[in-house]
Design brief:
This protein is an alpha/beta fold and 459 residues long. Helices cover 35% and strands 15% of the residues. It is globular and about 70 Å long. The protein binds pyridoxal-5'-phosphate (PLP).
Length: 459
C-alpha cells in the first residue's frame, strides 16, 4: 500500500489483501476503508432474520439519533454527563416500581453492559451477605453454594466458577425443562447464598416455578431456621411479564426475591449492550461492594464490574420508556406474543412438530420433531431454512434431557405477522423437502467432561 492515495480510486485500494497476522502498515482512504468494512457485512447473517437471538435489531430513526448524539459519552463519567446519570437513576426507580418493589425503601440498582454483568453483581451481593451473616454467627463461611436449574444461561456457570461458588444445579428431565420446588430439598442447605430462578429461560421461554420455589423456601425456613434469598433472572421475562401478566407474581411481590436482572437489549428494545440489576432495597447490595470515588464537590458510589462503557444505550432506553410508556410496551409485547402463538400453531398443526413449552410466557417458540419423523432432525431443518436467510437455533437439551432435541424461534417485536407466517411456511417447506430427500446433520456430540459446552443455548 505504498501508492499515494490521490493516485488511486477505492477500487484499487479495497482490492488489496487484508493482512491477517500483522498490523496494517499504511492507511487507505475513508471511502475504501468503509467499503472494506461494509463488504464484510454482506456475508454475515441478516440480523433481522436471526431468530436465534433475543437481542434487539431494530429501532426508530429517532432512537438511532439519540444513540448518535450520545455515542462519545463515557457512562462512568457522571461528573461530565450528569444528565445521563440522572436518566439512569430515574430508570432504576421506574424499574423498581415496574417490578413491584416495596414502598418506602431506597431503591438501588444500576445499568450494566448486559444481564451477565447484572447477574454477577447480584450473585456477589448474595455471596457477601451470606458470608457476613455466617461470620457474625461465628459459623464457617468458606463453602458457599448456589442453587439453579439446569436450564440456566451460561452467565451463572461463569459466575459460579469465576467467583468460587459451588454449583448446585438441579438437572432437567425429558418433559420438564424448568426449575421446580420438587427436588430442592436435596440441593439447598445453610451454605446456599441464593436460589436463582428464571423468568423467561433461553431454552423454551418458560418461567421456573417461581412462586412454588418461594413458598417451599418459606417452609424450609420454618423447619430449619435457614433463610435463603432468591434472585430472579429476568433477562427476557423482566420486560415481558409486567406488561402481559400484571397479576402474575414473579417479582418483588414475593418477599424472598431480593434482586432481579433484565436485559435492556432484549425485550427492553435497546440495541446491545444494556442490562439492569435492581435490588429490593439499598441494603441488599452489600455496602462492602460499593466504592466511593471523588468527584467535583462530592463522593459518588460506583459498583459495576466495568468502569468505562458507552452511554448511548442508556439514552436509548430512556427514549424507549418515554416513547412507549407502559401501554406501548404492553401492546408491543402482546402482538409479539400473538405472532409467536400463531407461528407455533402453524408448526404444530402441520403434524411435524410438538411444542416443548406448555406454560408459554415470553414469545419463544420451542418445538421438537414428532417421533414419526426419522429421516431428518432439527439440525437439518435449521440448515435447510438457512438457505432462505433464517437463522434458527437447534440444540440438544442440557442434562438430564440430552436425548431431547429442540428447534427454537425467538419472535421479536420487529417481526410482523406476515413475516412470522413466511417463516412458518419456510419451516414447513423445509420439512417437506427433508421428508423426501432425507437429512444428514449430526447433532453435536456431548463432550464427556464438559457436557454444558454443547447444550448452551444462544442468547
Ligand atoms: C440473555 C440471558 C442472559 C445473559 O444476558 P446478556 O444480556 O446477554 O449478558 C442471562 N440469563 C438469561 C435467562 C438470558 O436470557
Amino acid at each position: 500500500m505504498a501508492t499515494p492515495i490521490e493516485k488511486v480510486t477505492p477500487y484499487d485500494e479495497f482490492n488489496y489483501a487484508i493482512p491477517e497476522g500483522e498490523f496494517p502498515k499504511d492507511g487507505m482512504s475513508a471511502r475504501a476503508a468503509a467499503a472494506v468494512v461494509i463488504s464484510a457485512e454482506w456475508t454475515d447473517a441478516n440480523p433481522m432474520l436471526n431468530m436465534s437471538s433475543f437481542v434487539t435489531t431494530w429501532a426508530e430513526p429517532e432512537a438511532a439519533e439519540a444513540a448518535k448524539r450520545n455515542i462519545f459519552k463515557n457512562y462512568i463519567d457522571h461528573d461530565m454527563y450528569p444528565q445521563l446519570f440522572a436518566m439512569e437513576t430515574r430508570m432504576v426507580r421506574w424499574l423498581h416500581q415496574l417490578w413491584n418493589g416495596p414502598h418506602g425503601v431506597e431503591p438501588y440498582g444500576t445499568a450494566t453492559v448486559g444481564s451477565s454483568e447484572a447477574c454477577m453483581l447480584a450473585g456477589l451481593a448474595h455471596k457477601w451477605n451470606w458470608r457476613q451473616k455466617r461470620e457474625k454467627e461465628g459459623k464457617d463461611a468458606s463453602r458457599p453454594n448456589m442453587v439453579t436449574g439446569g436450564n440456566v444461561q451460561i452467565v451463572w456457570k461463569k459466575f459460579l466458577r469465576y467467583f468460587d461458588v459451588e454449583p448446585r444445579i438441579v438437572p432437567l428431565k425429558p418433559g420438564n425443562y424448568r426449575l421446580t420446588a420438587d427436588e430442592l430439598e436435596k440441593y439447598v442447605d445453610e451454605n446456599t447464598i441464593a436460589v436463582v430462578a428464571i423468568a423467561g429461560q433461553t431454552f423454551t421461554g418458560e418461567d421456573d416455578d417461581i412462586e412454588a420455589i418461594h413458598d417451599w423456601l418459606d417452609d424450609y425456613e420454618k423447619k430449619t431456621g435457614i433463610s435463603i434469598p432468591m434472585h430472579i433472572d429476568g433477562a427476557s421475562g423482566g420486560f415481558v411479564n409486567p406488561f402481559l401478566y400484571p397479576d402474575y407474581k414473579w417479582d418483588f411481590r414475593l418477599p424472598r426475591v431480593q434482586s432481579i436482572n433484565a436485559s435492556g437489549h432484549k425485550y427492553g428494545l435497546v440495541p446491545p449492550g444494556l442490562g439492569w440489576v435492581i435490588f429490593r432495597e439499598r441494603k441488599v447490595f452489600n455496602e462492602d461492594l460499593v466504592f466511593y470515588v471523588n468527584y467535583l464537590g462530592g463522593e459518588m458510589p460506583t459498583a459495576t464490574l466495568n468502569f468505562s462503557r458507552n452511554g448511548f444505550q442508556i439514552a436509548v432506553q430512556y427514549y424507549m420508556f418515554l416513547r412507549h410508556g407502559f401501554e406501548g410496551y404492553r401492546r408491543i409485547m402482546q402482538h409479539t406474543l400473538d405472532n409467536a402463538t400463531a407461528l407455533r400453531k402453524t408448526l404444530v398443526d402441520s403434524g411435524f412438530f410438538t411444542i416443548m413449552n406448555e406454560a408459554q410466557r415470553i414469545p419463544v417458540v420451542a418445538v421438537t420433531l414428532n417421533k414419526e419423523v426419522t429421516r431428518y432432525n432439527e439440525f437439518d431443518v435449521s440448515n435447510k431454512v438457512r438457505e432462505k436467510g433464517w437463522v434458527l437455533s437447534a440444540y440438544t437439551m442440557p442434562p438430564n434431557a440430552e436425548e431431547v432435541r429442540s428447534l427454537r424461534v425467538v419472535v421479536r417485536p420487529h417481526v410482523n405477522h406476515h413475516v412470522a407466517q413466511l417463516l412458518g411456511q419456510d419451516i414447513l417447506s423445509a420439512c417437506k423437502y427433508l421428508e423426501e430427500h432425507g437429512g444428514n446433520a449430526t447433532p453435536p456430540k456431548l463432550h464427556a467432561h464438559a457436557p454444558e459446552k454443547t447444550t448452551l443455548s444462544k442468547c
